[in-house]
Amino acid sequence: MVRRPWQTMTSIKVECVMGEKLRIGESPLWEEKEGTLVFVDITGQKVCRWNPASNHLQTVSVEAPVGSVALRNSGSYVVALGNKFGILKWEDQSVTTIAHVDEDKLNNRFNDGKVDPGGRFFAGTMAQELRPAVVERNQGSLFMLLADHSVVKHFDQIDISNGLDWSLDHKTFFYIDSLSYAVDAFDYDVTTASISNRRCLYRLEKEECIPDGMCIDAEGKLWIACYNGGRVIRIDPETGKNIHTVKLPVDKITSCCFGGKDYTEMYVTSASDGMDDQWAARQPQSGCIFKISGLNVKGIAPYTFAG
């Protein structure tokens, strides 16, 4: 068998690069123009922007748990927080509500989200957690925010709506409902944003624990953050196999994205909520952000919301 460069662990380096502890770090994305990593702290109710060059962290506090953030064509941000979509303007730290969802489910909140190749913002909901990864089942839905600020619901009966991304040819939508312990795939029509033909792509092994956030690399392979599993795994969508594992020094890995020069670095978010004193003492970097270098694969730039 020919061993490819990314299949060896010898060149890979994992380091803690942003040491301010987050409660639940999530939704990382690289803002190339600013050279910054943008992400949220869900239960900390903050949207954050961190510059690796200067190690300068900026935050905007919001009024509800914030599940995800994405770039807009106009240069500001779109956020999914509480049960609403909003526009965040960093300069005056204001959030303007543009749409509500799940108004009949007062205990629900948004979780992970991402913009599709057509400029639409997808984000899903879940019931508020009783404790980490423990929720009232089947309460969530997957929503899509369009450029005109109208909202479409794709499907419901979700436990914890989480990672999502699209294949490089835009013909497949990948999606994680965390408590299914699986990554699913759908046929995708980028013109109409219709999804169909749901099937299981990969079911996590016991030691991989709970699938959380997800991103795709420039070779079309998926990277899955494993919550309580202390690792990110690389999945080949064509074979449905785990082809690479990178372990991290904390268990509560929440999401991942590529960034840095030419998108050659991977940034990984983590959480500190739900840890007792002994666990926290054993893993003091929980809630920090990590950088993985030496993967010998690039990522792609995030899509931007058209509205």
UniProtKB/TrEMBL annotation:
Its main location: cytoplasm. Its cofactor is Mn(2+); Zn(2+); Ca(2+); Mg(2+). InterPro entries: 6-blade_b-propeller_TolB-like, Regucalcin, SGL, SMP-30. One of its GO terms (molecular function) is calcium ion binding. Substrate binds at R109, N111, E129. Its EC number is 3.1.1.17. Gene3D superfamilies: TolB, C-terminal domain (2.120.10.30). A divalent metal cation binds at E26, N162, D212. It is found in: Cytoplasm. The active site is at D212 (proton donor/acceptor). Binds 1 divalent metal cation per subunit. It is an enzyme of class 3 (hydrolase). It catalyses: D-glucono-1,5-lactone + H2O = D-gluconate + H(+). It comes from the Eukaryota. One of its GO terms (biological process) is L-ascorbic acid biosynthetic process. Keywords: Calcium, Cytoplasm, Hydrolase, Metal-binding, Zinc. One of its GO terms (cellular component) is cytoplasm. Pfam families: SGL. Residues 24-272 form the SMP-30/Gluconolactonase/LRE-like region domain. Belongs to the SMP-30/CGR1 family. PANTHER family: REGUCALCIN. This is Regucalcin.
